[in-house]
Amino acid sequence: MSGYSISDVGSNQKTKKLNPVMKSNSINSIASVLAIVGTAAFASTANAATIYEESFETYSLGDSNGQGGWVDFGGTRLTNVVNTISSGGTQSLEFLTNPGYGSDTTLDLGSPITSGQLTLSYDIFQPTGYDGQAHVYLSRGATLTGNFDAGLDLVGNGTTGLFGAGGTDTPLLLDQWVSVVVNIDLDADTAVATYGGTEIFNGAWLNGGTSPQGFQGMNAWTTGGEALSSFNIDNMVLTSTIPEPSSLALLGLGLAGSVIRRRRA
Ligand SMILES: [Ca+2]
Questions:
Q1: pLDDT for the residue 73
Q2: pLDDT class for 29, splitting at 50, 70, 90?
Q3: Is the terminal CB of the chain with fewer CB neighbours within 10 Å at N or C?
Q4: 79: CA distance to ligand 1 center in Å?
C-alpha cells in the first residue's frame, strides 16, 4: 500500500469587495444601506473556497496512477488519461470495463473534512454501448486505508439505463457530458445530489460505517456489463462554503444597521 495521498490542498479564498457606499446625510438612508450590506454579506457566504479542482489537462496521457494524487486501486484495467474526449479542454479520465470489473482509481484528501458545507461536482460521459456500472463513491473515511464508509455511491448504470445514488433514479443521458452535483451538509449530515439538474438523492450523509461524520475519499471505478466499453469523467471540483471571517464581520455591520433602523421606528 503506497499510502499516497494529497495533503490538505491550499484554499483559494476570494477577497470580497464592497460597492462604494452612496453618500447621504440621512441616517435612515445609512441604516438602509447598512441593512442591505448585511444581506449581501449573508448571501456572499456562498462564496466557496476551492479544496480540490481537476480538469486533467496537465496530466500525461495514459496511466493516471500517481498523477494528481490518484492511486490505482487494483482494477483489471488501467484508468487512463485520454485526449479523445473531454468536457472543456482536451483531456479527461477514462474508465474501461474488462468487460466486468475494470478500471478502479481512488483519491483521498490528506485529512477528512468534518464540518461545514461542501459541494462536489463532476462531468460524466456515458456513451451508447457502455453497459457497465460507472461508480463515483464518496467516502467519509480514507479509501486507501479501507475506510469505505458511504457517503454516497453515485452510479450510472448502463445495464438498467438509470443514474442514481440510493434515492430516486433518473434515466441516463447518453452520448453527452452530464453534470453531477452533490451538496453535502456535514453539520446536519445530509446530502442532496443532482444529475443533469434532476434531483436523484435527498437524504442522510451519515448512514452507516465506522468513520465519524466527514468527507475524505473519492473512488471512481467500473464494473459489470458484457461489452468492452468505457465511460469518462472530467472537471472534478470540491468546494467548501464555510463562512469566512470577513463575512461574519459584515454580518455584524448588517445587525448594526437593523438596530439603528429600529430605534428610529
Ligand atoms: Ca478536461
A1: 96
A2: very low
A3: C
A4: 15
